[in-house]
Specification:
Elements: H1 36-40, H2 57-74, H3 87-97, H4 120-132, H5 137-177, H6 181-195, H7 198-205, H8 212-226, H9 243-254, H10 266-289
């Protein structure tokens, strides 16, 4: 602005060389005022969250010193964390190795041929733990693949064990029943066919070799249900006899009065002797062939 003489009046013009004093974000006690990150932290780094725990200038200096020390140690690589590493240092270390920022950012592919047993819900609960351990995307997928192989191997072993138990069970029944095996199995299956819904038959039949008591019980039930229709010539029956039944029949004949003492007529004594011998021989052959 000019004075009465027309000359510029310096006192009346604002002094452009004098600037407003910048706002301070540091309290007298060294604590940082709210908004200090917006003023000093680059915008592309604020999302990391590393600065949020810092509330004082002293903390800021300490974290800076830690970072410089870590950088100085690592050289061309990434040095392992120390036992007293802060969470900020750990997060920075893990992310430098390639860990995604959050567990939700892992992308997991179900292993081939394991889609049916892949438990996505259980895995979702596990991912935060793996993330906390610092695992990278590749490492997590590796853990999933390894676990899938473990499950596949366990399933295969279980299937093999079930098959072996099944075969051993049937072998036991064949030894026990001898020539009567097919007949008794038929009796058991007939009970199932008559009393179990069709959709449940296969499931129950799969238990043959794993539940021998069940097979024995079903066979006995079948025998009771069918005995009215079975031929019974001379009281002996036409169905095959089990080794135990053959031996019991032999013992029964041996209890014939006078046989043990040899007091029976010679012809009857010899006939019983041959019959008893034949019964024991049949029982032995039935067990050997089972």
């Amino acid at each position: 602005m000019a004075d009465e003489t027309g000359e510029p009046n310096p006192a009346a013009e604002p002094d452009s060389s004098v600037q407003d004093e910048p706002q301070s974000f540091i309290q007298p006690d060294g604590t940082l005022k709210e908004g200090w990150m917006d003023a000093f932290v680059p915008e592309d780094l604020r999302h990391l969250g590393d600065y949020k725990p810092i509330t004082t200038v002293a903390q800021l200096a300490k974290e800076f010193g830690h970072a410089k020390t870590l950088i100085g140690r690592q050289g061309k690589g990434i040095m392992p964390l120390t036992e007293d590493a802060t969470q900020t240092e750990r997060d920075a270390y893990y992310e430098a190795l390639g860990r995604p920022p959050t567990p939700d950012e892992y992308t997991i592919t179900p292993p081939k041929d394991m889609e049916d047993v892949f438990d996505a819900v259980a895995l979702k609960d596990t991912l935060p733990v793996l993330h906390g351990l610092g695992l990278t995307q590749k490492q997590v997928q590796g853990v999933v693949n390894l676990d899938a192989e473990r499950v596949k191997e366990a399933m295969a072993k279980n299937e093999a064990a079930v098959k072996t138990a099944y075969e051993e069970g049937l072998k036991t029944l064949k030894t026990e029943w001898g020539d009567a095996f097919k007949q008794k199995m038929h009796q058991a299956k007939s009970v199932i066919a008559q009393s179990v819904p069709a959709e449940k038959e296969a499931e129950l039949l799969e238990r043959w070799g794993n539940d021998l008591d069940l097979v024995r019980a079903l066979s006995t039930m079948g025998e009771l249900l069918l005995e009215d229709t079975m031929a019974d010539a001379g009281g002996a029956g036409t169905r095959p006899m089990t080794p135990d039944e053959l031996e019991n029949k032999a013992k029964e004949l041996m209890q014939t009065p006078g046989y043990i003492e040899g007091r029976l007529p010679e012809a009857k004594q010899e006939r019983l002797r041959k019959e008893i011998h034949a019964l024991y021989e049949q029982a032995g052959v039935a067990r050997a062939e089972a």
